[in-house]
Design a protein that fits this description.
With 295 residues, this protein is α+β, with helices and mostly antiparallel strands. The protein contains five helices and 18 strands.
């Protein structure tokens, strides 16, 4: 099912390596939006490339390095679903705040949402020159909530108390996507995921910056962005927004790098992509250029 408000003015195509949108009228192409998307390539939105096809503008998106969200059907944990939905809502909210490109040009179809190996969300925006009207805004709002419901349905997580409440809120016409995003930020839907009575606690003592962090959650993301991290690292611009995560598994804390630019180290050894390193008291963790001792 398509949840793309602008579906009527493009013809879409798909291979395993590429998505494409051919404009029915070249006058719909928006050069300014195209340049903005090129500058943002590799972040929230997948890179966009313009070409001509039978005299029509074609916009192509390489998707070979990403995984469509439908490939995770039934495999995502409730906390992963919450994080993915939160990131989608945050991306949309940032887009609305920017004001340079109409949000209606984002393809909210379920099969146009992609994840990378770290489950970070990547989306498709088609640089189209359209006028935003109350009708298109309403259509986008309905598409947004429909997408969130479909993500929960396909993840097969409706039995989770928090996701069931989120699902019901998305189906309630009185709730806007802004209401849902606000509730997500307030952790309204994150029931029973923060602590475990059998779980121990550790502290990270800041050797470099004097910042002490208590790790008392089953999964704790560390980074510089309060929007993405449970514990915000202070004192360095070299730390990524989602730098690493520490998690409790089978009676042991582990650390994993989350694709950070400046890496994570334990006792001087690089934490490689996809590698989980067990933590012991006395270990020294290096997050970018900051060091912490595990206590």
């Amino acid at each position: 099912m398509s949840n793309f408000v602008c579906e009527s003015i493009v013809q879409s195509g798909r291979t395993s390596e590429r998505l494409s949108y051919t404009l029915t009228d070249n006058n719909f192409f928006y050069q300014t939006a195209y340049k903005i998307l090129q500058n943002q390539a590799g972040n929230t939105f997948i890179s966009c490339y313009k070409s001509m096809w039978n005299g029509k503008v074609r916009l192509s998106y390489p998707i070979g390095n990403y995984h469509p969200i439908y490939s995770y059907k039934g495999q995502l944990l409730p906390e992963h679903v919450i994080e993915i939905i939160t990131e989608i809502c945050k991306n949309i909210d940032s887009f609305k705040m920017n004001g340079l490109i109409q949000p209606e040009t984002i393809d909210l179809s379920y099969d146009s949402i992609f994840l990378d190996e770290y489950l970070a969300v990547h989306m498709i925006c088609v640089p189209l020159a359209i006028s935003s009207t109350p009708e298109t805004q309403m259509s986008f709002e309905l598409a947004m909530k429909s997408l969130l419901c479909e993500i929960i349905e396909k993840a097969q997580c409706q039995q989770d108390e928090g996701l069931l409440l989120l699902y019901q809120d998305c189906q309630d016409r009185k709730n806007t996507s802004e209401d849902i995003f606000r509730n997500l930020k307030m952790k309204k839907y994150s029931f029973g995921r923060s602590t475990n009575s059998n779980m121990q606690r550790i502290e990270l003592w800041g050797i470099t910056n004097g910042q002490n962090l208590q790790i008392d959650m089953e999964e704790c993301i560390l980074g510089k962005s309060p929007e993405y991290a449970h514990k915000v690292i202070a004192g360095s611009s070299s730390v990524s927004r989602k730098h690493c995560r520490i998690f409790w598994l089978n009676g042991q804390f582990y650390i994993e790098d989350m694709g950070s630019l400046n890496h994570t180290y334990v006792n001087g050894s690089l934490v490689k992509n996809g590698e989980y390193i067990p933590l012991q008291q006395g270990d020294v963790i290096q997050i970018a250029d900051l060091e912490y001792e595990v206590r």
